[in-house]
Design a protein that fits this description.
- It is a single chain.
- By secondary structure, the protein is of the alpha+beta class.
- The protein has 2 domains: about 70 residues, Ubiquitin-like (UB roll) (Roll), CATH 3.10.20; about 100 residues, no CATH class.
- The protein has 8 helices and 4 strands; from the N terminus they run ββββαααααααα.
- The protein is elongated and about 65 Å long.
- The chain binds zinc ion.
């Protein structure tokens, strides 16, 4: 089946094909090879992409870079935030970050080293409680209560910040034994 799409160069609907391309993208001084697909108009021969459904080579390179450096991926930042029941605005206030920093990271911008350290620390609920005592006005009271409850129960959850909440029975735990 022939694919048809609007070519922005010809300004008309033409047959297109997806062509695999290889590119080296430099991320913070590191050369990262990326393989991605781009649309090619079969009439004019020009390449173009339709955002957001097509491959974004920079996005792909950032993902590879984050994985290599054990950095948090955008969807994991979102998941971590939701685990604490926080909005973007609440979490960025708690971290003391600027207004748009967190939403940029959740949307795929590459985080800097200091911010990444903050993100790693979020995996530990005890650290989040410390942040709350440093910035008591960052969160509404009920959110703070929720996080305190989460912390009380978290020590007998293994990998509590991973998908699926794998729960481990701990006989020394009053909550488990109850
Ligand atoms: Zn064209």
């Amino acid at each position: 089946m022939k694919l048809k799409d609007f070519c922005p160069y010809c300004m008309e609907i033409n047959e297109i094909e997806f062509v695999e391309k290889n590119e080296i993208i430099e991320v913070r001084g590191k050369q990262i090879p990326v393989k991605y697909k781009e649309r090619k108009c079969t009439k004019c021969g020009d390449f173009y992409s339709n955002v957001p459904e097509d491959d974004d080579p920079y996005d792909m390179a950032y993902r590879i870079y984050r994985e290599k450096h054990n950095m948090t991926q955008p969807e994991d930042i979102k998941r971590l935030r939701e685990k604490y029941g926080l909005t973007q605005d609440e979490l960025r206030k708690l971290l003391g970050w600027g207004a748009v920093t967190l939403s940029r990271y959740e949307n795929g911008a590459l985080q800097d080293g200091t911010h990444q350290n903050d993100l790693w620390a979020l995996k530990n609920p005890q650290h989040v409680l410390e942040l709350i005592s440093e910035r008591p006005d960052a969160l509404p009271k009920e959110k703070i209560e929720r996080i305190r409850t989460l912390y009380r129960f978290s020590y007998h959850f293994t990998n509590w910040d991973n998908k699926g909440d794998s729960k481990t029975y701990d006989s020394s735990c009053m909550e488990c034994a109850a």
